[in-house]
Amino acid sequence: MLKNIASVLNLLALVLAHDDQHEQKPIQGPHQGLWYTTFDNIPGDGGTQVHRSIRAHPIDPGLVLGPVEFDKVVDVSTYSSRKVRFSGGYNVPLDANPFNSWAKILDCGDIPVTSYDNAYAIQQIQEGHNKLLSRLPFTNANKPGPSKAGTTLPRIITLGGDHTITLPLLRSVVAAYGPISVIHFDSHLDTWRPHVFGGAPTPQASINHGTYFYHAHSEGLLANDSSIHAGIRTTLSGLSDYDNDGYCGFEIVEAREIDTIGTEGIIRKIRERVGTKKPVYLSIDIDTLDPA
Hints:
Elements: H1 2-16, E1 52-57, E2 73-79, E3 105-110, H2 118-133, E4 155-160, H3 166-177, E5 181-185, H4 212-218, E6 227-232, H5 240-247, E7 250-254, H6 262-274, E8 280-284
Parallel strand pairs: 1-3, 1-4, 2-4, 2-8, 5-6, 5-8, 6-7
């Protein structure tokens, strides 16, 4: 657990590292008392204005897997619904503290989701995310941005249950930005066809932690041929899984490639695939970092 928390803190520090640092004051929003607070020392709940917001979706219909944000990244997801206490946020290698940086960070709490109906829970996650995404950001609220409306929107970091939550989050993001590129750090493809992964006995069961990118592609949520996986080391039902993954618009960087092309080579592949001009959704599953 401590390793997972440390990994998330490192990612947050990388996201928010900036020379300009200033004090932050809590801003209370209208959602206080409606959603649940998960982080102890981040101002919340909801926030009238926010640049980076953190909110959790405590849903885990299957395995607990894991999906965070830099300049062009408009949304991030990672997975843990446990209560986290921060004794500090300073990251030594990056020489940055994301909780005392240029960005206003608010804890928006847990969006309430039902544990009894996965289809309705997915709808709740999409609607809750959209409510946050529709609010004015703390930074550059009046400046043009990459959204379809030409405005600047908040950047949202999601801590979730299992990777299924990526589908409703993408639906919300795409409603605001249009089809989007995905950088997906994971050990698994998560583009499997429903009849291959889970058998799809019902429409609801066909949407799970191994098929959500298949559905995202089918729904037209992904920008054409500009998404990429990094860290893949999964078993397959056969090489047809790779063919299907390509059909869904992904390029693959396998975990073992770090031994041949190194970190810089992987970064280069991601930049060449995704580019640096358009909005990006970044999804991180903790098993790409920790085999346990």
